[in-house]
Amino acid sequence: AEYMGVREHLVPMSECPVQHTKQPPSECPVQHKSPLIPQKSSKPTSCDSSNMSDTATIVPPHEAHQLLLHSDQKQPLSTHRVPSTIPKSNQTPSHQPGQTETWVYPSEQMFWNAMKRKGYDPDEGDMKAVVAIHNTVNERTWQHILEWESMNQPSAHHIRLKRFMGRPTDFSPRARFRNLLGYSLPFDRHDWYIDRDGKEVRYVIDFYRGQPTEADGRIGFHLDVRPALDSVDNVMARMKWQWRSWFGSE
Fold first, then answer.
1. Which end of the chain is more exposed for a tag (fewer CB within 10 A), N or C?
2. Do 47 and 30 contact (CB within 8 A), yes or no?
3. pLDDT at residue 206 above 70?
4. What is the rounded average pLDDT for all residues in the chain?
5. Is the pTM of the predicted complex or chain greater than 0.70?
6. How far does Cα 114 stand from its chain's mean position?
7. Is residue 84 classed as helix, strand or coil in its secondary structure?
């Protein structure tokens, strides 16, 4: 479903909905209202693709995460990392394996360490579901970006995710306007910077909580993905999308 351009999705909790043969990136915990999602005990902190290391060690940074068990852990967690469908640009952050062409999701252990560092109180038994939700949200976000790119830049050959930044308390003007109309504010915001044939383009993503379904236990969430209004091309893209939403054609 779609409300004011915001896409609604449902995430099944019984299994990982991401194809394991194919990150979006980020170690930001997804803050859905669910007993499976630990709630944060401190102020929100930003998620930044350039600063996600747990520690500095003599091992490669992207492997250091997997070697660390938090002192509060009661049981070990999986260190397996799932490749995403999102192509990387030529810039590879320290937490990403250098030999992969796509971003790689954090493992359950990496996610646990990141959540503890950011003030959460996670339960080991929930981490598989938490990571699955996180991965799915990012995969869907990337698909929406590709839809925008296909509509506005069909001649582009290479679309890659260059970097991203979490801005959870920096509400966008669109989110504030929707709030004035009675909609809730998003629980998180990301800015994703893509590389479009060498040109950097910024996208704004607002994440909204949805209502879980009682029938099958799926968690609802809403995504509002759009180009930032920081260039003439992006303004024209937004106008084109609005025209299509109203009239169904150009």
1. C
2. no
3. yes
4. 74
5. yes
6. 15
7. strand
